[in-house]
Specification:
mainly alpha
Length: 431
């Protein structure tokens, strides 16, 4: 980081590391569950007729919460002191949020898989919401949002509000399944719930963190800060209009207009990232950053699919949209950024006091770069194969793609746990 940058002290390891380890386990589970349920996704009439089915709901929630949200919580707790330039409000809150999140996801995933409505599903949803509230408290207390807050803080702050909103609606939907009380169609609210999570929680959190990290990792700097300020305004305005109109009048042609507003905000953010990229001092792009740029491509492809989904009645486009969003966008950025953040966190714990006093490894020496390279190559092979197989309704291609994705998850799992289980080692061999 640049000299003179005032950052807060890193939080305790228990506030960060459990999230990474648990997310790698959930990612492995999700990959094999997808392979197990692959027959249903391609050939079963039930899935072609409707996507509100137990296995889909379970896998989607495990992916969004057990994989995406779990690892993002850990990264956010580590990065909040950097973004907000002060200490994390509470490492204890962070660890307790991990406990509620891990338990809640496990219960919710099981209850959806077996479609056990009532107490079990509501308990899982409540536990996850408590975790989100604890996260929100940590964000608002650490960020100290005010009139002169940085745009990164505003994105992180707004994303935490959208997370609490999304999970509150999700809990109400779980209650409604057992004890119906909504006057609006359940499926309409489910669509709104999903987009609040995607465009409110994931998009805005990823936007905010990338504004800070991409320039740092590429050694680049953009002066076009107005682009991301407008991105913040447009992403939130479009989403609020979409949710309000959608709740009262359902998904209509106006929804595409609101989508265009959000998409304009996305494009402005990506233009900012492009400006950073063109002005970077670090010309060589390493494998973690390649994952990040692939994730941007996944996001753009998903955006192009939105009008196709609206005007087509074939649900295969919905499945492709979901796969690319979760696997091509969210997963790709996590698969790369994990090895930009986690090794440094562990290295800092083992070697900070030894730096300059002994021969010590670098953060990049804590994981296996060959595994990361294979992970990237198999990833960019598997994802297009999955999308093509869904379009062509080809069972064998779909399963080959999922086997590839299981391999990616396994390589990621091995590398993450290699970092987490690292022992202090001097380069002369002493420990």
């Amino acid at each position: 980081m640049a000299g003179g940058l005032n950052v807060g002290k890193a939080p305790k390891n228990r506030a960060v590391l459990p999230f990474y380890g648990t997310a790698s386990i959930f990612f492995l589970i999700i990959s094999f569950l997808l392979l197990y349920a692959s027959n249903s996704f391609i050939s079963t009439d039930e899935y072609q007729a409707h996507y509100f089915v137990p296995h889909v709901l379970s896998i989607v929630h495990l992916a969004a919460l057990g994989w995406g949200t779990m690892v993002i919580f850990g990264a956010a707790y580590q990065l909040l002191p950097v973004i907000c330039e002060q200490n994390l409000f509470s490492s204890n809150f962070a660890f307790v949020s991990y406990c509620f999140l891990a338990v809640g996801i496990s219960i919710l995933g099981y209850s959806f898989w077996h479609f056990q409505l009532g107490f079990l599903m509501i308990t899982g949803g409540s536990s996850i919401l408590i975790a989100a509230i604890l996260y929100f408290i940590n964000v608002i207390k650490t960020a100290s949002i005010g009139l002169h807050s940085s745009i990164e803080r505003l994105f992180v702050f707004s994303s935490s509000i959208w997370l609490v909103f999304t999970l509150t609606v999700g809990l109400l939907l779980a209650i409604n399944l057992a004890y119906p009380f909504f006057t609006t169609n359940h499926m309409e609210i489910l669509r709104l719930h999903a987009h609040a999570g995607l465009a409110g929680w994931f998009l805005q959190l990823i936007t905010g963190i990338s504004i800070k990290l991409v320039p740092m990792f590429l050694l680049g700097r953009s002066t076009k800060i107005k682009l991301v300020k407008w991105a913040f305004a447009l992403q939130n305005t479009g989403l609020i209009l979409f949710l309000t109109d959608g709740y009262f009048f359902g998904i209509t042609i106006r929804s595409l207009i609101y989508g265009v507003i959000v998409i304009t905000g996305v494009v402005l953010w990506l233009l900012y990232i492009r400006d950073v990229f063109t002005k970077r001092m670090k010309k060589k792009i390493d494998t973690p950053m390649k994952h990040t740029f692939v994730s941007f491509s996944g996001l753009l492809i998903s955006i192009l699919l939105i009008p196709v989904i609206y005007f087509s009645s074939n649900l295969k486009w919905v499945f492709i949209y979901g796969f690319i969003l979760f696997l091509g966008w969210i997963s790709a950025i996590i698969l790369g950024m994990t090895f930009k953040t986690l090794p440094f966190i562990v290295w800092n714990n083992h070697y900070k006091k030894l730096n300059g006093k002994a021969k010590i490894p670098l953060p990049k020496d804590l994981f296996m770069p060959n595994l990361l390279t294979y992970q990237f190559r198999i990833f960019i092979f598997s994802l297009p194969l999955i999308a093509i197989s869904i379009i062509l309704q080809q069972q064998l291609l779909f399963q080959i793609g999922l086997v590839g994705f299981c391999t990616v998850a396994l390589l990621y799992f091995i590398n993450v746990w290699k970092v987490l289980t690292h022992k202090t080692t001097l380069l002369d061999g002493n420990r």
